[in-house]
């Protein structure tokens, strides 16, 4: 059975009614919005384009080793999760004059377990098999290890994103059709984006030159489908990580006309909708994630196997502004793009394989 991601307005009800038991689902507030990318562009200060980042306060331009040992707080509800999760930030490009304005992430909708109060941010999933079963007896799941990182998607993609990277137009509280491109009409509830990461590891490398080859992507649809077996080249089953973000595009809906203007939303690297991508850096404390993945039929909080914190506490976690550039208000260029704004040369140079 295929299962679509849950409608925010119906998520709680559906969870109580349906058999939805496998994995973790929790909110993380926004930690910072900066041009930093320690996974794809380690050491670059600043990186080529703007990201919205959540998670632990060890986040920096360069991150090696055990991230959890250096972090002292996290913007995630799971208080033992000092990982970092980030995506490119969405922008509105005014069809009349070509100027840009940053789009804010809408606060993560309240989920089960007292998680209301998130500020912007992402919804994070760690699933063992799919949303309805864990399949642990046939396919046990191994936690990521300190120093592990991966990316999914690429800002250089111009054709079509890999399956599992998608868009939905929230209208009248309904997420609507899943597509591989930006919605062509106005979305009164925002643009909903999803990023499914690959779950099969080679068991050796914490990273790879392209930040993806050490993983094998079994994702072949836009749903939380049952995970197929990992190949012999990448035999280790890891948790299936997924990010969901709702971008609050409603403030810009009166600034464009779908009948005469093309889609005015772009990612922070310009590019196209096919370039949607996301980054992950593992940072769970000790064996906290493994404990959760070893629990059978436990959704949201690992059946008490890991500790949670109030989002009012999570929201107090911060990092300093390393780049110190103006990213708000109307801008002539996207942050960091400047003279490369119309050519994409900077992105192509810094992201070439």
From TrEMBL:
Record's signal peptide: 1-22
Keywords for this protein: Signal
Domain DUF1996: 37-284
Coiled coil (UniProt feature): none
A Pfam family: DUF1996
Designated name of the protein: DUF1996 domain-containing protein
Organism: Apodospora peruviana
């Amino acid at each position: 059975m295929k299962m679509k991601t849950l409608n925010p307005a119906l998520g709680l009800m559906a969870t109580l009614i349906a058999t939805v038991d496998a994995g973790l689902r929790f909110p993380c507030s926004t930690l910072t919005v900066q041009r930093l990318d320690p996974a794809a562009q380690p050491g670059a200060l600043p990186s080529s384009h703007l990201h919205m980042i959540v998670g632990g306060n060890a986040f920096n331009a360069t991150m090696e080793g055990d991230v959890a040992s250096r972090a002292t707080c996290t913007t995630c509800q799971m208080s033992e999760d000092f990982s970092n999760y980030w995506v490119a930030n969405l922008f509105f490009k005014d069809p009349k004059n070509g100027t840009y304005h940053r789009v804010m992430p809408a606060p993560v909708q309240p989920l089960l377990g007292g998680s209301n109060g998130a500020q912007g941010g992402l919804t994070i999933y760690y699933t063992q098999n799919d949303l309805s079963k864990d399949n642990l007896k046939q396919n046990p799941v191994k936690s990521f290890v300190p120093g592990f990182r991966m990316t999914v998607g690429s800002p250089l993609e111009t054709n079509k994103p890999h399956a599992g990277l998608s868009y939905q137009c929230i209208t009248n509280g309904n997420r609507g059709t899943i597509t591989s491109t930006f919605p062509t009409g106005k979305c009164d509830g925002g643009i909903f984006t999803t990023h499914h990461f690959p779950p099969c590891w080679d068991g050796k490398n914490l990273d790879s030159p392209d930040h993806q080859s050490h993983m094998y992507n079994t994702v072949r649809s836009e749903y939380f489908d049952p995970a197929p077996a990992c190949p012999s080249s990448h035999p280790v089953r890891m948790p299936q990580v997924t990010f969901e973000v709702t971008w609050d595009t409603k403030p810009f809906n009166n600034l464009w006309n779908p009948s005469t203007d093309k889609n005015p939303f772009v990612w922070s690297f310009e590019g196209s909708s096919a370039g949607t991508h996301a980054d992950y850096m593992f940072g769970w404390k000790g064996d906290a994630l493994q404990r959760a993945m070893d629990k059978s039929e436990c959704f949201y909080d690992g059946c008490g196997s890991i500790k949670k914190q109030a989002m009012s506490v999570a929201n107090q976690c911060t990092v300093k502004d390393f780049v110190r550039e103006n990213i708000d208000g109307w801008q002539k260029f996207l942050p960091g793009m400047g003279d490369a704004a119309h050519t994409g040369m900077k992105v192509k140079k810094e992201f070439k394989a």
